[in-house]
Amino acid sequence: MSKKTLAILVFIVFFFIYYIGSFSKIAFGDCIGFVLDAEKREFLTIATPLAHFLYVNTAVFFTKFLNFDSVSVMRFMSIIPAAFTASALFYLIKEFIEENWIAVTSVFVFGLGFTFWRSAETVEVYTFNALWVILFFIYAIKSLKSNSQKHIVAVGILLSISFWVHIQNIMLIPAYLVFLYLLKSERRSIILSFISFIFIFSLMFYTNHLNNIELKYTFTSNDGPWVQDTLQQSFSDLVKDVVKSLLFLIYNFNVFIVFAIFGMIHLFKNNKKSFLFFSIASVFTLGFATFYAVSDNYVFFISFYLIFTVFIALGIKQLSSRYDLKKLIFAPLLIPFIYILSLYIVSSIPQGKKFHQEKLYKGGLSYYMLPWLTHNIGCIEFTLDKVKCEDNVVALIEQSKEFIKLRLKYQPLSEIRKL
Q1: Any idea what DSSP says for residue 372?
Q2: Which of 109, 203, 304, 353 is an S-S bond match for 285, by CB 3.0 to 4.6 Å?
């Protein structure tokens, strides 16, 4: 089967997996804020960290000009980029290995990993962002292999565009600079790439300047203390961050972590340019995700997980020359059962039972430990029922009320409650 055909099949399979598991009702967190933006049908004109300019304005285009429903648009703004990212990851892995079964297996390990799977099932920017990041990786690796001018220029363009989706991608700038250094012999190409990068990036500052926003708010926000909290962490906090990072890694990749270790060694020995590029990208994206002091920092690991999956594929390839590993292709089918088993185990211990009761308004432990969101509790019904909880949900309630007010213009409350 050809690479293109397999990539299409990967897209189709993941589209259906993510569609079947997608939220039944608008979930908690930032979901209602994004749906509200789409419902308002007003384009954003600022490029700040919380704005997610390209993500929100893409959604607004569909609701404003094509009259699509805001909830449906935001659902597919997670599902479709997620399926495309899985398909593109297959292409990235194929840049390193010939074996289709290894590439497919590795993609399913990533695509069924908790963090990415959950991001595909809710309303969030992270699968849309992952698509731009994986394209950046693909063209960077292609450039390192072929020195193609169009690929080298595309790398600078894709990275700078990704900043308009999520500013966390500035953590990939060091990898981009290393990439340019590795191709220093292609002087004209890297100059064109860098100029393209600087031009598109600088437009963010110009956009904010037109809106009388200080340039620093391109990178930081005055709506939250996250950056300050990150810089003021104690040593014990940093240790806890590292432990959490390792637990996230285990929950996402379980036994496949072993293959990643062999894959890193294999890439170092056989392709030092790609190893250096991926290593620098890993250090900064992993470091940012680990130490950034926000409650949902697990989603910031996705960029690193894309690279980690390449390491897994290379590790399987390396070890398959010594062992018969073809049966591994069925291993990802067990991943959902790992989540169910983990939920059962945590639910049986006192701490788990206590946490379940505290978060029951969201669905308890199931909300936190299962990636799919079918039959979930929604923030609209939570708001309408005036449910009490200890968490700070003031902003969520206000956004939910505003969304309800807009929908009441053309939809009865009984129907809105179901959203």
Answers
A1: -
A2: 304
Instruction: Output the six-digit token pair for 7.
Output: 């990539």
pLDDT at 66 exceeding the cut of 80: yes
pLDDT-derived band at 228 (thresholds 50, 70, 90) equals low
For residue 224, give Cα distances in angstroms to 142, 220, 227: 39, 9, 8
Residues 6+ apart with CB under 8 A from 69: 63
The DSSP H or E segment spanning 400 is helix 394-407
pLDDT band at 223 (very low <50, low <70, confident <90, very high): low
Q: What size, in residues, is the chain?
A: 419
CA distance 157 to 142: 15
**Per-residue pLDDT tens digits for 369-403:** 999 999 999 999 999 999 888 888 898 999 999 99
For residues 75 and 82, is the Cβ–Cβ distance under 8 A?
no
Domain ranges of the chain: 1-124+373-419, 128-228, 240-323
Angle of helix 350-358 relative to helix 335-347, nearest 10 degrees? Answer: 100
pLDDT tens column, 265-298: 999 999 999 999 999 999 999 999 988 867 778 8
What are 30's two structure tokens? 């930032």
3-state helix, strand, coil in the chain (%, to 5): 75, 0, 25
Cite the DSSP H helix spans in 41-148: 53-64, 70-94, 100-111, 114-121, 126-146
pLDDT tens digits, one per residue of 328-338: 899 999 999 99
Asked whether the beta carbons of 362 and 28 are under 8 A apart, the reply is yes
